[in-house]
Amino acid sequence: MALASLIANIGLVVTGAAVRLTDSGLGCPTWPKCTDASYTTTSAMGVHGVIEFGNRLLGIALFVVALACFISAWTQRPRRRRQVRLSLLVLLGIPGQGVVGGITVLTNLNPWVVGLHFLLSMALIAAAYALWKSTDEGDGLPVFLVPTPLRHLTTVMAVVSAAVIVLGVVVTGSGPHSGDNGAKRNGLDPAAVAQAHADLVFLLVGLTVALWFAFRAVHAPRAAKAALTLLIIELSQGLIGFVQYFTHLPVALVAAHMLGASLVWAGTVAVLLAIRDRPDLPAADPASPQADEPTTSRYQSKAGSRS
What we know:
This protein is an all-alpha fold.
């Protein structure tokens, strides 16, 4: 269920891209209704109304999947509080995403609001990935598998990755494919913003390469594998970005680039979570002389033995 939620959140980004790239952003010109008189699309709205309303229906399906995740987390025994919190975060984020989407329509596709709509999807993808990851680990305190300097470098990489995503949103708001022929752009120079975006991408790729070699050097195979996967995604995304720029942003490549952005962010979260482990909570044994031993010291000892 957690994996389905992650896939659905990424899928919603792609369908949202389809809405924008087909100029269907105002296919339903109001919100929460599709028209002033109907909650659903009408024949008068044409294909644009069908596309926009279809995206709204997918949002409802996404909510159903998230609700199923929350119910599963709440009813499983023993109940794992971290999974309950993460599934609830995803569940509550989806109505919030719907509200931001409604504001997007009501502001006639203001590029800054459209960007916020996309960034909220990135936050939901991160939470959904963390929920999926939690199904394969315990609930003990985190045990870091790499030295502190590499933890810091991983954090820097994640910050740069987030900056790449944010600046990509700004680039999108400055160029074509606004979602509707009459929608405004943010007024920034597309070439200048795209160059700044590309510069950050080069930095991100360099940091990822450094992490891959560093993780291999300290014998952290899981983290190295996550970094290599992220690097492959970044290189693929960069290739799509350059081709779409020099071919004047064909619709198919722009859609692929938005999918790539979602995968880059999911890969970034994967690296962040791969540098630590969460063991199972130790079973309490009142008869054991170690029952009162602080769990933190035991996990620290485990981390030391791994290093």
